[in-house]
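Tutorial, part two.
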Amino acid sequence: MKTVLLIASACLLGLLSTTGASLPYPILPPLFAAGAVNELTGFLGLPPKLLFGIALMINPVGLLLGSAMLGPVSDRFGRRRVLLMTAIGAAVGHALTAAALVAQSYPLFLLARFVTGLLEGNGSIMRAMLAERLTGGLRNHALSWLNGAFHLGWLVGPLLAGFTVDAGITLPFAIAAGALLVGAGLAALALDRETVAPQAGSWWAVARERHALTLLRHTPLHTLFVVYFAYACGVASFYEFFPLWLVDIGNYDTRRIALVNMGMCALMTFAALFAGRASTLEPRRRASGHAGLVAAAILAVGLGNLWIGLAAIVLFGLPHAYYNATMQGWAADRFAAHGQGAVMGLLSTTFCLANIVMALAGGVLTLLDTRLVLIVGGLLAAWAALAMRNWSGRAVEGAAALEVEAK
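Running the prediction step on this input gives:
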């Protein structure tokens, strides 16, 4: 029963966390690209599309810092304590976002999105909690189910935005904040209090000295970072700019963007239910195949017409779900000695860094053509697929050589 509550609590908070994070994605493109210029969308007289790119970037900046620090901090101070504090803080961040939209304050909007992203970096805590308390096939399934909850949040958030924004642009954020508070309360009841051994050092000292990027001193983890970063850049280009592509190519509004996103996330969530199944194929080789299919989907959006792009957007969710389940399960097994909070934090940090890079690059490239962002992203994901396959090949050859020597 405790195992069920553990998995359910993690999945609930994962769902609510990404629901709030994904709310702005269908709201912002029409607001900045097709709406009237006001103090929010015309801040300092800058181009609305450039402001849109910055608005996309600031949340991943917070996520980057949160993902790098919160996992290692929870290694030291306990998963439950840090998880509940960050969930409540993220709810406050959503309330600030709503206030910024009412006041049409672009600086306050950026601050609110940064704080929310910083505290929503707690996904690494949820993954670490499952990775260290579960073993074997159940751990792989639980991590995949947690991914499914995150994916479902990317469905629920835009859907919530699409069908409530007409009643007021702040209503979706108010609902997200309330839901997070309820979720934190339920998780507090479900998760056992932890006994943390007293150690020297403050929260800030632990975050500074043991953040996830310190793992890059180890060669295999450095290789994982490089390959995963290239793949994550491709995925970030897709997530951040396919809504703007829909506005530019199909003149889609918030509700229609939400419906397309719903199809993609529904397939991704369904796939995550089964993506944790065992396979005889070496994990990195399996992940390379999934990354190749993801790259093909992103390029199909960038190079295709509206209908080809719509099909590719929806189908993207299938290989991406399998890639996530494969890489996270393999990393949890392969690098457990470094601390699950730090390892899962490294994966989350890498993805957040990719979001920042692509938001900056995309904000410039969209001034020329939104499709350029997707083409660049697709090529990066394709390179990651090849690099992962080569890495797997070298590992298999090395293992075979050792076996021959042993004989």
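The first helix runs from residue 2 to 22. In part three we will examine how such features are distributed along the chain.
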